[in-house]
Structure formats: structure tokens, C-alpha cells
Amino acid sequence: MGELAVEKHTEYILSIEKRKDDFESLVMEHLRLSGAYWGLTALDLMHKIGSVKPDDVVTWIMSCQDKESGGFGGNVGHDPHVLYTLSAVQVLAILDRLDALDVEKVSDYVAGLQNEDGSFSGDMWGEIDTRFSYVAICCLSLLHRLRKINVEKAVDFIVSCKNLDGGFGCIPGGESHAGQIFCCVGALAITGSLHHIDRDLLGWWLCERQCKDGGLNGRPEKLTDVCYSWWVLSSLIIIDRVHWIDKDKLSKFILNCQDLEKGGISDRPDNAVDVFHTYFGVAGLSLMEYPGLKTIDPAYALPVDVVNRIFFQK
Amino acid sequence: MEEGDDLLLQLEQILENDEQLDEIGFIHPTQFATLDTNSDSHSLQFNTHFFWNKDHKLAISFEVLSPLYRAAVQKHSCARRNYKPIVRSCSKEGSEEFLASEIDLLRHSKALVVLSPNFPTAWNSRKLILSNHHDLTLFLNELQLSTLILSYSPKSECAWSHRRWIIKLIAERFQNLEAIIRNESELVKKICEKFKMNYRAWNHWCWLVSYMTTQQVLDELSKLRKWAELHVADNSCFHFRRRLLVRVLQNSSTGKAKDASFNEESHTCSFLEGELEWNELLIRRYVGREALWMHRRFLSHCWINKFANDSKLNMFLDREMQLVKTCLVSSPDEFNDILVQAYLAAAYFLWLSKAAPQIRYEIHGRSREAGDVTSLLVKISPEKTLFWQSMGI
């Protein structure tokens, strides 16, 4: 098992950009901007952000913007969507290059996606999901433009997606899912609305996600997966119930999912690695204050120093 | 090897020609040898080393996926560029140029979503075109395309979301959704049969509940019972039942139900009782299933909220205590399933005491009957020791 293989993971993340020919990589092209966020945040948490050239990244990111709407697509020439707009803002924040953005234009795009009932559509086609509520709120908060939306209604919609088990789903009546819970708890934290949460009840559901192998699952009866180290753990931290699970066992589970030869972290021990799980593994360890890693903010999903730079150095 | 453009043309012709196509698979070149080559006498010319099409099934060789994908991306983005300006400049939508650009974009976007089901921009191109049409057949064909893609990519978020977009359009323009809801419910069941606890599929079904009539909700509840009995570990299926039950309970409390069969308190009570009894039967039959106990928490919660001040409360709690006690074992050396059952029963008891503060006193009075559940929970699941201790009675 051993320690976190920082050098190997750095090499792995940097190598992803070079492998582009196989079909598996090609069909991921449409979400490259999110891939950039996962990779670069992991690098930054490991103090390795210096291994990329910020100018190249910024130029590429800006070429993913749809000039008309102001939103960002997942790659050059793709339609804009709020998910990739947040990824763009987060990456620029990490690189301390938010000045590259036309903040009014981008925030108008995001704010324009709010619906009458307070919910958010992902793009102009109208699919609604609490994920988009989080993404929009997080994005606008990072741009200091939360005032452009009706925060009260946005909160009401999120609260309407709460289930009797204390968790949250995609839409009112949707099944509780750790990923959706993170989104709802994160959005409520950013908007200062955590009083809508029954911390003991939600904490109960969340801590029941820890399984015998130390890992966390995302729903009852599911297998453990490294990505829930982020979704569950960050939510537990935000609602101040993280002491209810065994952090040592969880750290061991994540470290066991490393590919110590080629670098990268997988969903479960001995599976194939990918950048998504590499990020969530590193982020999970950072939440548990693993030595040598930067601390990550559980609501903004960015290193704490980046968040501080945005909110305290104005 | 043939050029990507040629291959793409062949693929697009197959997709156009076989309107009833219901399954697609990407397979290894060596697997082509095992496929039945006595194919129907095709009028189509395609390279049988890379494509196979029979009985409305299509196989594509792994070998050509990358060139096919690249060609599809390139052709789609050209078609998209050509389409937009025409829409803007053309007042007469029927013009030949316009129709040609539409057909072009539909053809290339279809090939692209077949090859890469989560390519959002290609799905959007189709929405762009469809939103200018008022033809129900066209919308139904689009649902069929999404079904085809879900047959091999059951978690494709874009394919599910595209379905919802189409259904919303049909609801706005043609209203009657009864037949559609029936089809959707069959589709979700079929997909969930093959791929367990598919969040996207069940979420789609939850989304549809708001379009259902009360009678449909009741029908779904009764039809789903058999399915649930065969899939007792499928938490999503039980969640969906809860979604339906909430609809029924809401209707009964607001008196919305027009069929009048569930607008009485006594009916609500017997409805919940029926579900509780059925759930208990399953808990006893299928030992150690978390999904079943989660469902019980929900049912008890509803029951207590409705009837906590009722004379029935003591009877209810006696039965719950009986169930918990028979499931508890004190020795952690028992077989795994039995141990898990004891763990779930103990957690359920603790949950009852916390989740319904109005009955805390009654639960407290019974805690001796259950024994030291906190110690049992700590013993079986030590990783949550602090949690059990802070929740303990």
C-alpha cells in the first residue's frame, strides 16, 4: 500500500495530454475541460502545479468559450453548458488568471439559467438537476456575482429535493445519492443556508456509507468507490459530522487504489486508473489532512489558498 | 484500411436503412468470424470486415471506431456550421437548401451519438432541428433512437436527458402521455433488469411520476411489487416505490384523488399497513438486505407521522420490537448474513428512537427489551464507534 506516490501521480496526470489516439480517449474529448479541472486541482493539491505552463492552459480554456452566450463548452467547438463553465472558472482560479474572463458576460450566462421555481437548467435545453444549482451557485460566488440570481428561490428548490432519509436527489422526489448530497450541501453552505439541514439525520445516512473495507459507497447496497471519498467526506465535514467515520480506514482504502508503477488512482483496488478517480482520491486525502498535501475547501472544491485569494484579497 | 469518410458513409447508410435497429455492439475484429454471415441479401454495400447487420442488430469492429469517430466529428461540425446560418437567413423553411442542410445534420449527428453517446453537442444539434418541427412521428422516432443507444449505453446521461426533452415537447404539443408513460415504464424495467441500480434510469422514472395520473401511480405500485420481490437489493427500486407512495399519501391528505379510493384516512392506514407487512415478509425471507431496512425506515416514518397520537401506536411499536428482537443475535461469530441482519435491525431500532422524537418516550421504555444495541453496533461496525455512541440510547 505505502504512501501517496506524488511523483508517479504527477507523471500520470501530465501524460494524459499526450495519449490521444485510442477510442477510449477520443470519446472523452467532449469533457476535456472537466478533465483539466480534475488533473490541475490534483496537481495543485500535491504542490505540482508548476509542472504545467499556465499560458497554454489559459489560451486553450478561453478558446472553449462560446462568445455569443458567454458560457463554456467541454472542448473547443462544443456547445456551452454550466458544468464546463464552472470547470473553466475553477481552473482559471487555480492559475490565478480570473482576469482573463469577462466576468459580467460569464455570470450573465450562468444567472440566465435560473428558472422561475429557483432551479437551474444545465444549458439552454432545460434539463434540471440539483447539480446545476450547485455549479451555478459555486461559479457565481467565485465571480462575486451571487446577487445576479434569486438566492432564496435557489435555496427553496434545493430544499424541495430533500428526502425523508435526510439526503438529496436530482429533482424533487429523486433518490438520495452522495454526489447529489454534496451538491446540495455545498450550495447551502455557500449561500449560508445550512440551517435547512438536519445534521444528525443526514450525517447518519452519510456515515452508513462507510463499508467494511473502509471505503465509502454512494448509495445503500452499492460497492465502495474512491470518488465517494470526496462526495461523502466533504458533506460530512461541512455539516460537522466527520468524526462519525473511521478516517484511518478510509485513507488506507484510497492508498490501496493507487497504481504504484504507472501512477494514478482507480475506483477500487486493482482496477484501471483514470484522472477522475485520481483527483477524488487526492482530494479525499487532502480533506483528511494527509501530510504534504494542500488543504482543499469542502464546498468550493478548490485548494483553500485559492479560495482565500478570491475572497480575502480584494 | 478505408478512409474514415467512406466508413462513415457506410455506417450512416446502415442506420438509415434499418429503421428497426434495436441493438448495437462494438466488437473485437476476431469476433466477426463467429457471426452468422448468411446475412439477408442486403441491397446495401458495406465492408463486412467492419460491419455486420442482421435481424436489426448492428456490430461495428473496434478496429474502425477511431477513424469513424474522427470522421463523424468532422462531418457533424461542418453540417452544424452550414445549418445555423441558413436557419437565420431563410424565411422559407421549406427551401431545398434548408432541407438538405437539415438532413445532413440529422444524419451526421445520429452517427456521432451512436459512436459517442455522451457527446452533448451532437444531441443538441438534433434538438435544434426538432424544435422547429411539429410532427409526432418524428418525436417518436427520436425516442426510438435514444432507446437504441440506451441498449448498449444504459447510463448515457445525454440519451436520458434527450428523452425527457422530447417527452416535454410531446406533452406541450400533443398532451396525451398515457401510452408514452406505459412505454417508458417498460423501457426502464427492461434496462434495470440488465443493469442493476442504474441511477439515471430510475431517476428518469421518478421524473415521470409528476406526469402520471393517480390511477397510473396505483397501477405502477402494484405492478412493481413482483419486480421488487425479485430484486430485493435494488435500493433504487424501493426508492421509486417511496416516490409513488408519497404521491398517494399526498393525494389522500389533500383530498386530491378523484377516484376516491384513497382519500380516506382508513385507506391510507391500510395502504401503509399492507406495505409494512409485505416489507416484513421480505426482511424475514431475504436476510441481511440493507435496501429492505431502508424501506422500512421510510414506512415507519410515514406511519408515525400519521398516527403517532393514535391508539394504534402501541400495537405498531410492539410489532416493530418483535421484528427487531427476532433479528438480533448477540454473538458476532454468526454467519455473515445473519450478522448483517442483526446490525441492520439494531440500527433500525436506534433510528426509530431518533427519527421520530414524538415517540422517544415509548421507545425508551422498550430499550431494555432490545438489550444493549449500542454495544452490539459498536462490536459489529467499530469504524462508526463515535457515531453509535453519540446516537446510543
UniProtKB/TrEMBL annotation, chain A:
GO-annotated biological processes: gametophyte development; root development
UniProt EC number: 2.5.1.60
TM region positions: none
GO cellular component: Rab-protein geranylgeranyltransferase complex
Keywords: Metal-binding, Prenyltransferase, Repeat, Transferase, Zinc
Domain Prenyltransferase alpha-alpha toroid: 4-301
Keyword Metal-binding: yes
Coiled coil: none
GO MF annotations, alphabetized: metal ion binding; Rab geranylgeranyltransferase activity
Cofactor(s) recorded in Swiss-Prot or TrEMBL: Zn(2+)
Reactions catalysed according to its record: geranylgeranyl diphosphate + L-cysteinyl-[protein] = S-geranylgeranyl-L-cysteinyl-[protein] + diphosphate
One of the Pfam families matching this protein, by short name: Prenyltrans
Domain of life the protein comes from: Eukaryota
CDD domains according to UniProt: GGTase-II (cd02894)
Cofactor details (free text): Binds 1 zinc ion per subunit.
Role of this protein: Required for male fertility and root tip growth. Catalyzes the transfer of a geranylgeranyl moiety from geranylgeranyl diphosphate to both cysteines of proteins with the C-terminal sequence -XXCC, -XCXC and -CCXX.
Subunit comment: Heterotrimer composed of the alpha subunit RGTA, the beta subunit RGTB and REP; within this trimer, RGTA and RGTB form the catalytic component, while REP mediates peptide substrate binding.
Family designation: Belongs to the protein prenyltransferase subunit beta family.
Protein name, as recorded: Geranylgeranyl transferase type-2 subunit beta
TrEMBL record, chain B:
Gene3D superfamilies, sorted: Protein prenylyltransferase
Pfam families: PPTA (PF01239)
InterPro entries reported for this sequence: Prenyl_trans_a
Molecular functions per Gene Ontology: CAAX-protein geranylgeranyltransferase activity; protein farnesyltransferase activity
Keywords: Prenyltransferase, Repeat, Transferase
A cellular component annotation (GO) from this entry: CAAX-protein geranylgeranyltransferase complex
Membrane-spanning parts: none
Family according to the record: Belongs to the protein prenyltransferase subunit alpha family.
PANTHER family per UniProt: PROTEIN FARNESYLTRANSFERASE ALPHA SUBUNIT/RAB GERANYLGERANYL TRANSFERASE ALPHA SUBUNIT (PTHR11129), PROTEIN PRENYLYLTRANSFERASE SUPERFAMILY PROTEIN (PTHR11129:SF10)
Name this polypeptide is given: Protein prenyltransferase alpha subunit repeat-containing protein 1
Source organism per UniProt: Carex littledalei
